[in-house]
């Protein structure tokens, strides 16, 4: 936790109260927070401040804003990823948010087990987003969309995300073209499930404007490839 | 598991036996392996083959080599990383191996809890390496070294890893210089612990030839930053 994220409703008075158990406990246990300390606090969906701690109790920490700080910029990318195994979902969302992905789309695919769509973890996405924002020092949640059917998404939604200035790349081992690097424009990036997309899916993606690009001849897990490809694509900054 | 890794001693006859419970179980449960199937098999420290399955039983799967396949190339990088929390260690080693890191150095640092050096997980590094190699389709284990003292490593060992053709970069938020991308030469990359290196450590690293480079103003977890920075540095390929 590198900032404490508060709801806008918690910041209407001059003194703001941090009262969520998770946050208070972290500040006591890991930061050892005391009156007079400075603390980075973000308002969800809004600005970020350096604050001063004015009161500390077991259940509540109170702060006053000192001055505004810059919120880190997002990466201009829509990450479209086949719904992973539930236990990978938390890390995938948290990492994507930490790295600054602007929009995340979770998509069905042939090799996605249908039971994954029933996981209670899908009800906790907002919690993973909060953890990712607090890690990065960010305040703006990415948009997250779920598409439980592959074909309608690829045929009806994906084309609207693609333009001459904003291409879409699907990471795919069986192509001659290598994934670009240090691009200076927005894009969408499509990442398949464990075992990859099936040929029919790659065909449909390509027919609808997506460009297949390989990442070398190592096979990388979904949750690892996201950071790897984002580091590659947005290395111009 | 994208290849089955065997010990050279298991491949002295014409027919090779896969008998490790973990591997056999994976091939039965996830691959549904049958006689006549082709199977990618690597010899640890050696070559990689496409093989044909010639016998299948509950406890053992037997294969015969058909032809040799290319082993993926390593990234020419030494990853020097502050020893992470035990539960992160497995993922960190596995991801680094999957991505092709040539040499991994686990290092002590002021913000590394001394108890981390007592974790039984440090006895299982070889197992994590195997998982990373089987994920990537690689056969060559990276060298792994452990240094329990920061200063002697930085003063006595680090300089020998650095040359005009092989710089060392430390990821550090408080510098004007940005991490390079798409480099065409080998390098070392130094990654700090949770909370970062302390100023004394950054000073000592810089005095001994390491260049501090930032990765933007997001704070990224150790286990995520490794894939991110490798994607950035080695995007020329």
TrEMBL record, chains A, B:
<keyword id="KW-0963">Cytoplasm</keyword>
<dbReference type="InterPro" id="IPR046886">
    <property type="entry name" value="RsmE_MTase_dom"/>
</dbReference>
<comment type="function">
    <text>Specifically methylates the N3 position of the uracil ring of uridine 1498 (m3U1498) in 16S rRNA. Acts on the fully assembled 30S ribosomal subunit.</text>
</comment>
<comment type="similarity">
    <text>Belongs to the RNA methyltransferase RsmE family.</text>
</comment>
<dbReference type="Pfam" id="PF04452">
    <property type="entry name" value="Methyltrans_RNA"/>
</dbReference>
<dbReference type="GO" id="GO:0032259">
    <property type="term" value="P:methylation"/>
</dbReference>
<feature type="domain" description="Ribosomal RNA small subunit methyltransferase E methyltransferase">
    <location>
        <begin position="73"/>
        <end position="232"/>
    </location>
</feature>
<keyword id="KW-0808">Transferase</keyword>
<keyword id="KW-0489">Methyltransferase</keyword>
<protein>
    <recommendedName>
        <fullName>Ribosomal RNA small subunit methyltransferase E</fullName>
        <ecNumber>2.1.1.193</ecNumber>
    </recommendedName>
</protein>
<dbReference type="InterPro" id="IPR029028">
    <property type="entry name" value="Alpha/beta_knot_MTases"/>
</dbReference>
<keyword id="KW-0949">S-adenosyl-L-methionine</keyword>
<dbReference type="InterPro" id="IPR029026">
    <property type="entry name" value="tRNA_m1G_MTases_N"/>
</dbReference>
<keyword id="KW-0698">rRNA processing</keyword>
<dbReference type="GO" id="GO:0008168">
    <property type="term" value="F:methyltransferase activity"/>
</dbReference>
<dbReference type="InterPro" id="IPR006700">
    <property type="entry name" value="RsmE"/>
</dbReference>
């Amino acid at each position: 936790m590198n900032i404490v994220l508060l709801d806008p409703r918690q910041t209407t008075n001059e003194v703001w109260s941090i009262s969520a158990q998770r946050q208070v406990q972290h500040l006591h246990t890991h930061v050892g927070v005391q009156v007079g300390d400075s603390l980075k606090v973000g308002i969800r969906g809004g600005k970020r401040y350096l604050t001063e701690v004015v009161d500390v109790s077991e259940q509540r920490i109170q702060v006053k804003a000192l001055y505004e700080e810059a919120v880190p910029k997002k990466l201009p990318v829509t990450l479209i990823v086949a719904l992973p195994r539930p236990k990978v979902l938390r890390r995938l969302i948290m990492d994507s948010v930490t790295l600054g992905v602007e929009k995340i789309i979770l998509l069905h695919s042939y090799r996605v087990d249908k039971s994954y769509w029933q996981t209670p973890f899908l009800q906790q996405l907002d919690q993973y987003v909060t953890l990712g924002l607090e890690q990065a020092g960010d305040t703006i949640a990415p948009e997250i969309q779920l598409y439980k059917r592959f074909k309608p998404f690829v045929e009806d939604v994906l084309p609207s995300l693609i333009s001459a200035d904003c291409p879409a790349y699907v990471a795919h081992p069986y192509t001659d073209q290598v994934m670009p690097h240090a691009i200076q424009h927005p894009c969408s990036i499509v990442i398949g499930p464990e075992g990859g997309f099936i040929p029919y899916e790659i065909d449909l993606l390509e027919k609808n404007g997506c460009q297949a690009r390989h990442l070398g001849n190592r096979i990388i897990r979904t949750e690892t490839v996201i950071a790897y490809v984002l580091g590659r694509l947005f290395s111009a900054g």
